[in-house]
């Protein structure tokens, strides 16, 4: 096993790589069974997760965290009643602080942590989105410190109460925000329903021409280009975090024709959906950059 999967105790946590994102799974879906190849911290945002690890079942509520380690045999059963929204990051490390418990004594789940943990998690994800090379390149020491704080808080006893906020900040024209709300609602609830520019403009209470100017100024893309990007970026965590076929992912993202979906995905990210999934599974650099701002990443709550 690689050294970063058999870390030793030292002065600080030293990362070798870091990557992650967010995903939403439909009621009753399952991930696994699988054997985890590295370390992973999962934050449950919406919906209950039943986490089966080495034969032991854990009920993880919204606001709870899961810390998994290499070699864990695990299965995720997503909430059977509502969509399960969760954030996650994978990491490798060569060392961890000497005052931390031994790896074998690390807890696997916490029901709730201090509200600052959710904000810190989001902050780490913002850096992950800005560094496409991290799946294969070593993050700078400053980022190891961020993850050290996050994991250190997990290793402490449960404390705090209530559900921490994971809401993004927004600073966009009202017409753009109204339009994005409509687009996100369709992507999440009715991805196959067609959307015309005239409908978006009516939702925003502006003319089509003015809306196009606002979108280009705010996001760098037209309204309909933005809608396509919103649908395409849903595919990235689904390719990484589910066992769904390319056809099923295409339909989940609102594309009736899998070939057309694959062509648009390739044009946007520089490789096919199958190639994207294969590179992730082989530990290579995540292909392509997300072309939308961080707070519009896949299915973050508005």
Describe the structure.
There is one protein chain. The protein is α+β, with helices and mostly antiparallel strands and 302 residues long. The protein folds into two domains: 11-155, Regulatory protein AraC (Jelly Rolls); 174-296, Homeodomain-like (Arc Repressor Mutant, subunit A, Orthogonal Bundle), CATH 1.10.10. It is 37% helix and 22% strand. The chain has helices at residues 116-130, 141-155, 174-189, 197-204, 208-219, 223-241, 246-252, 258-269, 273-281; strands at 8-10, 14-25, 30-35, 39-46, 49-53, 56-60, 65-68, 73-78, 84-97, 109-110. Strands 1, 2, 4, 7, 9 and 10 form a six-stranded mixed sheet that branches. Strand 5 and strand 6 (56-60) form a beta hairpin. The longest helix is centred in the last third of the chain and has 19 residues, at 223-241. The N and C termini lie far apart (42 Å).
Tell me the radius of gyration: 20 Å
Low-confidence stretches: 158-169
Q: Number of domains in the coordinates?
A: 2
**N/C terminus separation:** 42 Å
- CATH architect. name of the largest domain: Sandwich
Looking at this structure, what is the CATH superfamily of the largest domain? Regulatory protein AraC
Characterize the biggest β-sheet.
6 strands, mixed
* CATH class annotation of the largest domain: Mainly Beta
CATH topology of the largest domain: Jelly Rolls
Overall helicity: 25-40%
Total helical segments: 9
Mean pLDDT score: 88
Instruction: Summarize the helix and strand pattern as letters.
Output: EEEEEEEEEEHHHHHHHHH
Structural class: alpha+beta
What is the number of strand segments?
Answer: 10
What would you call the shape? globular
